[in-house]
Write a structure and sequence with these properties.
The protein is 23% helix and 12% strand. The chain is an alpha/beta fold and 286 residues long. The protein has two domains: 138 residues, Thiolase/Chalcone synthase (Peroxisomal Thiolase, Chain A, domain 1, 3-Layer(aba) Sandwich); 73 residues, no CATH class. The strands form four sheets. A three-stranded parallel sheet has the order 4-3-5, sandwiched between helices. The chain has a two-stranded antiparallel sheet with strand order 1-2. A two-stranded antiparallel sheet has the order 6-9. The chain starts with 18 loop residues before the first strand and ends in a 14-residue tail after the last strand. The relative contact order is 0.11.
Length: 286
């Protein structure tokens, strides 16, 4: 026999005051003492305006653990919660592997002995915990269950954690100085652009720098430089009946991609590396 299950209370906990987009690096720290070049691009894409970090601004150290955050959210349910038979936690970033997250949260709460279950699953960790709690009550194994979902990403996002990677790249640069050219010129394209890389008018195409002959390996969607597209249109061939040139499948043919180009607003000009391909076409009235 199954039991009807009801959601009776919800609560949440967020550490410290919200951090705005302009204050992110003041809290997390800068890598190598330099501001991030990709920060504005990423923030523009995800649309996030503020977030909460469990980091002490004064010291830059982690101020709370994931287990402490979760326990604080459970306490926010109220002191009159009553006896709990099952505690189910969900997280993708536990403080440690063993003992698991649910056991650590149980210890933070100081509750008496009960069933504890830890769930993981990236975005579905909290939903999985809720489902297990619901099933426990529905099956009659528990009269009251608590389910949680929590993440503490700021623990692994501090700038100090990436200093070793930066040092490794500097050591590699000392051993192979040619890497500096690859970093600076984005595979040789537009060396004088603010963020050196070239624009491409086709998703599958790449730009080739006219001065160096090197090819930019970044796709069009990743390019952010001073190059601007300058399409050069080629007039379509017209039939004697005045109809547009058409392919065998009946669709109108487009100008050859090799007729397009891009010009850099800096002193370097770029030419797309497109291959001209002649395609059969037939003229006729449409």
């Amino acid at each position: 026999m199954t039991t009807d299950v009801f959601l009776t209370r919800t609560a949440a906990f967020l550490p410290f005051a919200p951090v705005s987009n302009e204050d992110i690096e003041d809290v997390l720290g800068r890598i190598g003492g330099k501001a991030s070049r990709a920060r504005r691009l990423i923030l523009r894409s995800n649309g996030i305006q503020s977030r909460h970090y469990a980091i002490d601004r004064a010291t830059g150290a982690l101020a709370m653990s994931n287990a402490q955050l979760t326990a604080s959210a459970i306490r926010a349910l109220g002191d009159d919660l009553g006896p709990v038979d099952c505690l189910v936690t969900g997280t993708s970033l536990p403080d440690q592997l063993m003992p698991n997250h649910a056991v650590m949260v149980h210890g933070e709460l100081g509750w008496p002995r009960l069933e504890v279950v830890a769930c993981a699953g990236i975005c579905l960790a909290g939903a999985t915990a809720l489902k297990h709690a619901w099933l426990s009550v529905r099956a009659g194994d528990a009269r009251r269950a608590v389910a949680t979902g929590s993440e503490l990403a700021s623990a692994v996002m501090r700038g100090s954690r990436f200093e070793a990677e930066l040092e490794h790249k500097l050591e590699a640069l000392e051993a192979r100085p040619e890497l500096a050219s690859r970093k600076t010129f984005c595979a040789g394209c537009c060396p004088t652009a603010p963020v050196p890389c070239c624009w491409s008018a086709s998703r599958a195409a790449r730009c080739r720098c006219a001065s160096t002959g090197s090819t930019c390996r970044l796709p069009r969607t990743s390019c952010r430089c001073a190059c601007t597209p300058v399409p050069r249109k080629t007039p379509r061939a017209a039939s004697t009946a005045g109809a547009a040139s058409r392919r065998p499948n009946g669709r109108a043919s487009r100008p050859s991609q090799s007729s397009r180009t891009c010009a850099c607003s800096t002193t370097t000009s770029c030419a797309p590396r497109w291959a001209s391909r002649s395609r059969p076409s037939s003229s006729g009235a449409g």
